[in-house]
User: What shape does this take?
Amino acid sequence: QVQLVESGGGLVQPGGSLRLSCAASGSILRFYAMGWYRQAPGKQRELVAAPNSGGSTDYADSVKGRFTISRDNAKNTIHLQMNSLKPEDTAVYYCNGQLFPGGRNYWGQGTQVTVSS
Assistant: This one.
């Protein structure tokens, strides 16, 4: 059974930083890919950061240079470091994992990020 649990969301002022974490049940080495998505009110869920088939990482244009995805294999956790946050970054952030290409998408429950003064 695969479980993903996000944490680290909250309220932050514009220009501030947050670090999101996603803890997986079991080793994250078994995942083909793990990434982050977000969904703002009234909008579709969108990619924030995720590895691509070429071995590099895709970032949404709106977060390039501000957000960084990383992983800690020893702790079975991936992170999303978010700097220079903007009000438009306000959304529920979801961790996503796939065990193999084209396989089922596993999702966490989401963590709310609110950027407001």
